[in-house]
Amino acid sequence: MYALLKVVLFSLLFAISYCAAPDARIVSETKSEQRRPLTVTYVGNEGVLISSGPHQLLIDGLHREYKPDYAFPPPALLGALEAARPPYDQLQLLLVTHIHLDHFHPQSVGLHLQNNPGAVLVSSAQVGDDVKEKFGSYREIESRVRRVTPEWKTKAALEVKGIKVNVLGLRHGSERFSWIQNQGFLVELNGTKLLHIGDADMTAENFSSFHLPEERIDIAFIPYWFLLSDQGRSLVKEHIRPKQIIAVHIQPAEAEKVAEQIRKANPGTITLTRIGESKSF
């Protein structure tokens, strides 16, 4: 009798595991299908073009030659971006962290929006107002300029064409730029979470209210100076904790030396220094 009971129990367990296996496989496949391959292409300074499936967005990539200390899109690339020539005619979302000219130019942004009716700009009131004041054909693009300016340490959520964005009110670094509306962007795109912080002040207070480690960020674009000091590295580890760090804003004249310093201090970090280079994830 005992032997018979063991056989029955074994048969039941086998049947349960057999039935459960296909469901588990389906769940696993569903999770993997939710996350699609993603490519990051360096445009200059903190500018990055992000592509995944049918979605394309550009962060801080529409700016012109400013000072030799900064990397900027060369004429051919800038012309293609402003004219929205392929593949840049597929851009859906332009994000600008702040008004400084090494991150943004009102004419460049205005021209792209004019030439790409499918694109939307999301940025601060300062950026939106600057485009309005300095781009002559502003009325043509006005409906696609979204001013979102959360107060310091607060955030605002929106969705543009299937791309989820949390706009973070992050104070700009240095006292002399305290008037600047600097924003971070937490973007969710086809199952991948990305963070771009602009020129955020390198203090814990600037980040702590957002509880970013709980977001499980996949890729964070971090200004290089955060990664060259103990304070900055601790801040990234404790208040952002991304799976992958990409260092940006590296000055062209010191690119090789700085990139080497970053890699030694932060193993596994990707450094973007060559305009047009791409990384796939």
Please describe what this structure looks like.
- By secondary structure, the chain is of the alpha/beta class.
- It has one domain: Ribonuclease Z/Hydroxyacylglutathione hydrolase-like (Metallo-beta-lactamase, Chain A, 4-Layer Sandwich), CATH 3.60.15.
- The protein has eight helices and 14 strands.
- It has helices at residues 2-34, 75-83, 106-115, 125-134, 138-141, 204-207, 230-239, 255-265; strands spanning 39-44, 47-52, 55-59, 93-95, 120-123, 145-147, 155-160, 163-169, 183-189, 192-196, 219-223, 244-248, 270-271, 278-280.
- The chain has a seven-stranded mixed sheet. A seven-stranded mixed sheet has the order 7-8-9-10-11-12-13, covered by helices on one side.
- Helix 2 packs across helix 3 and helix 3 (106-115) packs across helix 4 (125-134).
- The longest helix has 33 residues, at 2-34.
- The N and C termini lie far apart (58 Å).
